[in-house]
Amino acid sequence: MLEIGKALVSLDLLEEHFLCDLFKCKGACCVEGDSGAPLTQEEAIKLEEILPLVEPYMTSEGKAVVGHQGTSVVDSDGDTVTPLVNNRECAFTFKDEHGIVKCAVEKAFLDGKTDFRKPVSCHLFPIRISEYKRFDAVNYQELKICKPGRECGRGQKLPLYKFLKEPLIRKYGESWYKQLEVAAEAEPWKK
Fold first, then answer.
1. CA 21/CA 32 separation, integer angstroms
2. I need a labelling partner for 146 at 20 to 30 A (CA). Which of 21, 122, 159, 174 fits?
3. Residue 58: burial class (beta carbons within 10 Å; 0-12, 13-18, 19+)
4. Do 30 and 123 touch, CB atoms closer than 8 A?
């Protein structure tokens, strides 16, 4: 592990390669899982505020779930998350012309409708962050659904931390990311 600021970073971020291959996985990360996307309290409030801007991109099923449950729910672990359609797919999704499940919140952002891109937990995926009182544990979550992303990343020789540069900066800042780059390039962590 590397310690950068208050974050304990798994070496997997430096050692593993990754590049989403949406044509193969079809956006499975928005469909598979035990719960909805983890949200901060600020994100839960923001989703409620921007719902009218995001709804035009959502499926009718997603709109119905949000209409009934709200823009966020508390899961069985006590975490605030996005609601799910049929206890499976995030309510804030749609399928594009290729059948790929995508984020309606991000689509609204890319179309200039809102300044909120999407929950940071989604932006960071397949990295998962567990926040504790004194530190954050920054870990790579290796899932079967992401096998195409691992294969594509290896083919492109793209380390996970470089693939997720933008969301890591969004979460921890430019200076933090530069420290991560220095650590990765120094390679003292390699055996």
1. 16
2. 174
3. buried
4. no
**Per-residue tokens: 154:** 């290896």
Q: 157 in helix, strand or coil?
A: coil
Which residue type does 186 have? A
Collapse the DSSP code of 169 into the 3-class scheme (helix H, G, I; strand E, B; otherwise coil) and give the result. helix
Length of the chain counted residue by residue: 191
And the tokens for 143?
A: 């899932």
Backbone φ and ψ for 112, nearest 5 degrees, come out as: 75, 20
Q: Is the N-terminal amide bond of 119 cis, ω within 30° of 0?
A: no
- Structural contact between residues 7 and 135, judged by C-beta atoms closer than 8 angstroms: yes
Q: What angle do CA 116, 28, 18 make, to 5 degrees?
A: 80
Q: Would you call 100 helix, strand, or coil by DSSP?
A: coil
Say how far apart CA 105 and CA 173 lie, in whole Å: 22
Distance CA 80, CA 45 (A): 11
Residue 189 pLDDT greater than 70, yes or no: no
pTM of the model: 0.89
Helix (H) or strand (E) holding 73: strand 73-74
pLDDT in tens, 21-80: 999 999 999 998 788 999 999 999 999 999 999 999 999 999 999 999 999 999 999 999
d(CA 83, CA 120): 16
